[in-house]
Each structure stands twice: as C-alpha cells, then as structure tokens.
Automatic annotation (TrEMBL), chains A, B:
GO cellular component, one term: cytoplasm
Gene coding for it: rnj
Keyword annotations of the record: Calcium, Cytoplasm, Endonuclease, Exonuclease, Hydrolase, Metal-binding, Nuclease, RNA-binding, rRNA processing, Zinc
NCBIfam families: MG423 (TIGR00649)
Family: Belongs to the metallo-beta-lactamase superfamily. RNA-metabolizing metallo-beta-lactamase-like family. Bacterial RNase J subfamily.
Cofactor or coenzyme needed: Zn(2+); Ca(2+)
Classification via SMART domains: Lactamase_B
Protein name: Ribonuclease J
Length: 561, 561
C-alpha cells in the first residue's frame, strides 16, 4: 500500500488515454466528499458535500471541499453526479454552482429533490437529470451506469463510470442490509456483472472499515421501538437525523400501532419528510401526523414528537427541551428516544442533553442502552463480500479518516488485491489509472475552505488560531493619545479587557507604569506610534503574564495629537 | 426516588443526633469529588478532587469543588479522608489547604505519597495520617474504619464512618476484579460484616452504573499485550494514565518477556512510577528501565516507550509524536498501544492522534480494536452484588453525571431498597440522616469554581460566555478622540479586529460613516463619551451583521481631548 507523503509534488500531465482521480474532500475526514475524475480533458464530479467543524475550528459554520484544483476548468465539467441526499454529499453544491450555474446535476429522484430544496434557499435553479438504478447515461466522455445501493437514506446510488481508460466503480455511501424496509438492496448482481466485465478502479466507502462484522438490520429497530412505546404511559419524544426517512417511517408505524399521533418538530425534519412523502418514499398513515400546535390538546399517551437534535446541537429542539427552554416540555414519566448514532466529538453535548432530560424526570433510551440505531455504512464483513464479488483490479478507499482508509485498504489486501494496487490517497492526492494500473503520481494543494458568516474561504488557520487564543486567553486593548510635540501622554492610557476574572479594574494597577514607560520611551527618542505601541504591548504583556499567568491577545493603539 | 429540584431552599438546622451529608462536587459530573459529613457540629471531608474542563469552558485549567459551604467552618473539619490517589479525588487538596494548612490528611500510603508530591509543587507540607485496610481511627466524633477496595490505582480504600446517627459506608471509586494483579480485592467480607452490623447510608460509586454486566479483569490485558509485543518487529509505544501502576507493571513484564527495555516518558509518569516503585507497589525487573536518552542507541526491536497522552492532550508526548514534533519519532512498522479508555469529550483529540500515527505508518492498537483497557469502576452487575451483600438502609449514589446517579439508584431499588430510601442528590443538595432515614432537606449554593492562571474562582459564567463569543465571533475595538469643545473627531476613528476573514482592511469602508455618525450625534447634543461609544457600537455592529453576518464583541472607546 502506498502511503501519501507530504513530499508529493505537482503531478505530471495525464498521459493520453489515462484517467485521473483527485478527491477534493472526504479522504482524511468524514465529510465534504468530492471526487473529480478526468478523462480526455473532461471532468466528472462525484458528490460535493460539506464537513461540520470541530471544536478547534471555532465560529466556523461549514467546511467545503477545496475547489481551487478545478477553478480554472469549470467549463470542462460534464456533470456533478450525486450519489445520495446527505449533507456531506450535497451540501457544497450551492457553492460550486455559484462558480458556474449550469453544471448539470445527476442523481436519483429523492437526491435531486433534497438538493433542489437546498438550492432554492440559495436562490439557484439547477439543471438536473434524474436517473434510476439500472440506467446508463452518457455524460460527455463518461458513460455512467447507476447501481442501487442501500444506505441510511432512500434512493442512494453507486455509479460505474466507463471511459477508454477503464471502468471506475464508486460506491457512494452504502451498506448491505439484506432486508431493508423498502426492499431496495445493494445490487450485488450488478456488482457481480461489473466484476465479470472488469472493474479497473473500485472507490469504496471506508467509514465503518474498522468495525468488524456486519451492520444490524434497520428492520430490527421496529420491535425495539414497539417495546419502548408499549412501556410508555406518557409523552414520547424521538430524535433522529432529519433525512432518515426509514427511521421516521418506523416511528410513524409504531405510533399508529400504539394509538399515538406524531408531530414533526424542526424545520429540516418538516421539509424533508414533506418531500419524502410527496415522492412516495415515506408512507404516512392517514391522520397520524398532527401539527405541533395540536399536541397540547391531546392526552400525553397519544403523543409522539419526532424531532431533530440527536447530536446535541444547542439550538435544536431537543437541547432546548432538555434545558426547559422550549414550548414542548418534558417531565417525569415521559420517554425520550435518541434513535441515532453518537457522532464522535458530540459526546459532551449529547450527554448534556441526556442528563438534562434525566434531571427533568424523563426516561432516556439511546443507542448506549437499547438497539435504537444501526449505522448506514458497510462494516468490514460487508466490505469483504464486495471485494470478493467484484475482484477489482485496483482499489482506492474513500470516505473516512486516515484510520478508516488504512483499515479498508487492509481488507482489500486480505481478499487478494495486490498491495501495490491498493492506493491510499488523501485529499488532493492525484491518482492516475494508466494501462490498467492505478498509482499516486503527485498531489495538488487542497486545504480546508471555511464558510463563516458571509465569508467563504476567507478564514485561514491564522484566524482560527487568533480565535482560539481569544477564546482561551481573552484580549486586552490599550489606548493612549500622545503629544506629537513632546511625547507627553495627553489622554489615556486606557485598558479594556475581556475574558478575565477581574475585568478592567485590576488593570488600573498597571496604568502608572504604562504612562511612565511611554514617556521614558518618548524621552529616549521613540517617537513613532509603532514603537510606542510595542512599549505598551511589552509592559502589559509582562505584567499579565506575571500577575495573572495568562497570555491574552494584546492590541495596543497609540494616536498622536 | 427523590429527584433534586431547583426549588430547593436552604436547609433547616441539623436536628440533634442527626448526620448531614453535602457533596460539594462529583454529583452531576465525573470529577471534583468531595463530600462533607457533619455530626455534632464537626465536619469530615471525604476526597477533594478536580474536574477537567470541557470545550464550552475555554481557557479554564481546572474546576474545583465549591468550598463556600465550609469556608466559615474550616476549624470544624476533623480531617480529609482521601480514598485513593487519582486527580479527581486529591487534585483540589492544595486549594483547600491554602484555606487552612493544618487539616489532617488521612489515606493509604500510596495515596498520601501522591498527594504529598502534588503539595510539594504548591510548597505545602501537610499533616498526614497513613492508614491501612482493616484499621479503625477515631477522627474527632467520627470513627472511621478503612476497607480495601480494588480500583485502577493501588491502595484504594472505602471508608465506613460511624457516628451516633448511624454508619455511613462510602466506597470511593471501586470495582470488584476477583483476581487483581496485587491480590488485593474489594473486601466483601468486610462489606458483609458491616451489613450485618447495619449500614445506614451507603454512598456508592455510580460511574459505570449504566454499563450492564461486569468489568473484565486487569489480568486479561497481559496476554493481549503479549501478543501485540510478539507481533511487533520495531518500536513499541504504550500510552496510558500516569497513575495506572498495574498497567505499567504489565507493560514492564511484557517488555522483559520480549527482550525489550522501557523508557518512561512524561513528567507525571516518571514521578508516579518512582513513588510506586519505591513504596513497593511497582516491581521493576532489574535493568528493564532505561533513560529516554538511551533509546536511540538500542535497536528498534528492543525498545518500549511508556508515555502519557492517551487522551490526546495536545502537549503530551503522544500527540507531539503523532505530529512529528517530538524527539521520539514513529515510522512504518512501529506499534502504538493506547492502553486506556476514551474519556467522553476527548474523541476528536484521540482520533487526531490515531490518524497522525497511522499516517506516519504506525500500527495503532486501542480499546476500539483490542482488549487493551478495562475500566476501574464497578459495572451494574458488580453493584448488584454490593447492594445484596450490604442490604443498606439508605442509598445515596455518588460520583457521576445525573444519568449515572439515576441508573445506580434504579439498581438499588431493584435489589429491594425502598425507593423512598434512595436519595438522588446533586452537588450542594443537603441530605440528613435522622432516625435512620436519609432525606433531602434543602440545598446550599454550589457552583463551579474555575482555576484559570493565577485566578481561583474569579472566572464566572459571564466571562466564559465572553470567551465563547470572542472565540466564535472575534472582536472589534474602535477608538476615536473627539474634541470636548465641539464634538469634532480629532483622531481616528480607528478599527482593530481579530478573528475575521478580512482583518483591518475591510473595516476601512465603515470609517467615513462612523465619523459622520459621531459628528451628527455630537451636533444633536450627545456630548458624553458613553453616548458616543454607543453610537460607534451601533454603527459598527449593524454593518458587521449585514456585511459579514457576524456578531463579534465590540469595544468602543471615545476619548475627549
């Protein structure tokens, strides 16, 4: 297995007849999935998603794939193929379409409906081509065959891309539930046929490659919900992902079975389920849905609230309910079900919600104490099936952190794929498929692109570092007006501090020293304001370090008058 | 079970002959454990630990129990009983001794050695009384019998406190490994005897009460280490907690078995293992330990590095090794073992370390893929044994978040403890044991006390909120000098911003508007600097919100000249 190395340089030109693959996101993180295929001078984009920030990226709203690699080649893009409707696969489409509005979007009916709803908020009306499993479409030089896959959202597709350089099979996100609710299984017969025909490069979801065995069935959650519902004598609140149509379906079915009615809570939940129901992916039994306003007029044991916030997002309904800060209230005897995974990094927030609900007297059922969630991604056991049925000539693990990619690569090798044909690439690494062999040939710059308020890409690591210092250490601004004639301090110095135990008062102590230091500096010929500012920074910095043991950001301003 | 309620008021006076228990930390969080027992006007403190901050507490070094409840009663304290040497049980002792230096510390030999090393750094020499299991000491009005318990640090003790009001048994932290490395099991014979004599209030560790079944044996980790060592042909790095003497023992033993030598890395690891070895808790085979400097002269397959940083702490050895920023380097073929739990909230940091090490080519073995860690806290199955052998008259779950306390309470009830004798209390809740019945009688204020640089308790929620705003949104300071005569702007306005995509430059756009707004305000009679500052804040705030979609902290300063 070839490890990506920091010493990788820009790649040579793609040889004639070769296929190039560059991921601009999703290889090294779980999110912002985006792969760019190039053949004969033309490009095909597969997915264009967002990544959600971690705590060391304060204030950041979203993280995008880095479009720089294709910024000058937008006109070469034949289409964006969207494998399914999750945010980490479609969320960055509006930002790419801002660069070129008429790139066609290709995907299944539900995927396109979700992305169109999102684009509407950005006031973009896209060009779309809806496809179904089994269908083949020629997108410029790329012949794309779409294959059904099973995932935690309906209507997900893998795509086989045929070019003169060979066939690439990209799974998107998938698992292999053999008895899914909608009967739409990952099409292993198509995988087998593609394998017979020859898959030259298999780009395969790595998210669960470290997890041994097989993902349990979605269908298994129904009986668990049923028994929790049967045990509940008061209100039931279920939280899950706003796009998890089948999970919501099972909640609706359980509600009907137990004579309860369901109110959907949360904008994205309401919007997505309206789409899913209109398109026939969600079957809403007659009369089961009620408006949130109608909840209070029903007895507690006839109510289910289906809401977002299962990851402890502070502004979502569930967190606010747990904080007793929402029109929906929870009390002793109520049951809350977190029918969702616990995404790493969200533990503290989720446990805060669980503790809050527990404190209010609710029973909290979650994946830690009941089988109310199954993953959407193939575990190691399922991946082994895929490798064996496909017998791909080359493998490129996608979608995951480095640990996931490496674990997936090891599985490929275990099934007999030669180690030198398993390509470990991170974002920006350039992989060429030439003469039937895939290899790393270089890398292009590929950074994190932060969306922050109205700024896209303006925030860099430097600003994030500033924010971390501001958040951890606070800041001090110092202001003085000095005479341009004799350097005497005419006004100030004034100190303003934030984030300190003792606010401005304690800093009074330093003012006489500061004035003295300024006037001494002026007396010694330091007349320009920049030098005087450095004097103020030094005096205050040293004092704060000694007295308060802190290293805040210090902004000194000297004005001459 | 009585849930704590926010409407609790200050408690009435403790009835004559009654016993009062107030936890000043540890009930509602995992950490800063501290309980205060009161009888006949005298106080006994059990444990005095720290809590480590979460991400929403930026810049905070440590969180202490709230000593306010006992601040005016320091002279009533007979002693501080320390159940074991973990930071969350001893870490706040220096801060309590700062208030009264001569409070006696009572604990086992190893516990006292660890706390004395810590106090030495604070330049405090304590009064101590070393005790052993089986021993009974009269501490003023409290007769204390010490009972051996098994935990993830040697020499841990439970304490039975006898008073005229009845007997309290406090477990400290414990589990019930039946074949511990040192043969020192949790003394269920003593528990049985105490039960026969009558335990009126059982204060019991709740940390793992949600976890079904039993904790696996520490001894089971040896064979796993052995097989990982056998598979390793290059360097081995093991990371664990710096106080986990038995884990380190097993690493030393595995090293000897495989012809390797061990360098301890990290100040606390070196210090604690020196203490443990000197006191006979750690058996160091001859010649197995080497200095870190000696590592480079040994072949890779003769080296083990035993270090801290298993929680992804950014400054610890392991994180720096993973970042390629440490004198110890890791490369292809090396093995890293994280022999530790993953404490909730640390996932992102730990996974960053695992990804970094994986990227460097190392094989990373951790509790997610091998049995290299067992917990130190009794699971539900073990707790049931305790309840059944003790048959306590009243139960008060301690040490845990609300969800843990509630789960532990449910176990007590399942074994037949009447629900009205299971007391659910959080920090500050006052529990009185009167006439053999424990009940909640009120609550005293009990906040989080933040250590931040040199400040203890100065930082409040208000400053933390400021810091979160600073970290998420950045700040803008605005300065202007105006004429006291006619309100004309003499110098400035100047804007300085940090944490923004566009730093100061973009703010140039607003300066003309700002000057105009100031002079208009002055013309309309707003002459005091406070009013002018509000004008600046409003103009800049509105502009930043509209143009940048941000809500930073804004500090306007107007000086008259």
């Amino acid at each position: 297995m070839s490890h990506p190395h920091p010493e990788l340089t820009l790649p040579p030109a793609l040889p004639d007849g070769g296929l190039r693959v560059v991921a601009l996101g999703g290889l090294g993180e779980v999110g912002r999935n985006m792969a760019v295929l190039e053949y004969a001078g033309r490009l095909l984009v597969i997915d264009c998603g967002v990544l959600f920030p971690e705590d060391h990226q304060p204030g950041v709203d979203l993280i995008l794939p880095d479009f720089d690699y294709i910024r000058d080649r937008l006109d070469d893009i034949e289409a964006i193929v969207l494998t399914h409707g999750h945010e980490d696969h479609i969320g960055a489409v509006p930002y790419l379409l801002r660069l070129r509005r008429d790139i066609p979007l290709v995907g299944s009916q539900l995927t396109l409906a979700f992305v169109e709803a999102k684009l509407k908020e950005h006031r973009i009306q896209p060009f779309t081509l809806a496809v179904r499993e089994g269908q083949t479409e020629t997108l410029g030089v790329f012949e794309c065959e779409f294959v059904a896959v099973n995932h935690s959202i309906p209507d997900a597709l893998a795509v086989a891309v045929r070019t003169g350089a060979g066939t690439v099979l990209h799974t998107g996100d998938f698992k292999m539930d053999q008895l899914p609710l909608d009967g739409r299984i990952t099409d292993l017969r198509a995988f087998a046929r593609l394998g017979e025909q020859g898959v030259d490069l298999f780009m395969v979801d790595s998210t669960n490659a470290e997890v041994p065995g097989f993902v349990a069935q979605e269908r298994g959650i129904g009986p668990v919900l049923d028994s929790v519902f049967a045990d509940s004598t008061k209100r039931i609140i279920v939280a899950s992902f706003a796009s998890h149509v089948h999970r919501v379906q099972q909640v609706l079915d359980a509600a009907v079975a137990h004579g309860r009615r369901v109110a959907l809570v949360g904008r994205s939940m309401v919007r997505n389920m309206a789409i899913a129901s209109e398109l026939g992916y969600l079957t809403v039994p007659d009369g089961v849905l009620i408006d949130l306003k109608g909840v209070d007029s029903l007895p507690d044991d006839e109510v289910v609230l289906m809401c977002t916030g299962s990851q402890g997002e502070p502004m979502a309904a569930l967190s606010r309910i747990a904080n007793n800060d929402h029109k929906v209230s929870v009390g002793p005897g109520d049951t809350v079900i977190l029918a969702s995974s616990l995404i790493p990094g969200n533990e503290n927030a989720v446990f805060r919600v669980i503790n809050g609900l527990t404190r209010l007297g609710a029973r909290v059922v979650h994946s830690g104490n009941a089988k109310v969630h199954v993953s959407g991604h193939a575990s190691a056991g399922e991946l082994l099936y895929c490798y064996n049925i496909l017998k791909p000539r080359n493998v490129m693990p996608v979608h995951g952190e480095v640990r996931h990619l490496v674990a997936n690569a090891a599985l490929a090798v275990q099934t007999g794929v030669p180690a030198d044909r398993v390509v470990l690439a991170e974002d920006g690494v350039v992989v060429d498929l030439v003469d039937g062999k895939a290899s790393v040939v270089g890398a292009v710059p590929c950074g994190y692109v932060y969306v922050d308020g109205s700024s896209v890409g303006g925030i860099t690591e430097a600003e994030l570092k500033d924010r971390r210092i501001l958040g951890d250490e606070g800041f001090i601004s110092i202001f003085a007006v000095v005479s341009s004639a004799d350097g005497k301090v005419l006004a100030g110095p004034q100190i303003h501090a934030r984030g300190f135990a003792e606010q401005d008062e304690v800093f009074e102590d330093i003012l006489p020293d500061l004035t003295r230091a300024l006037e001494e500096a002026a007396a010694q010929g330091a007349v320009d304001t920049h030098q005087l500012q450095q004097v103020m920074r030094r005096v205050v910095g040293r004092w704060v370090s000694n007295r308060l043991r802190r290293r805040p950001m210090i902004i000194p301003v000297v004005v001459e008058a």
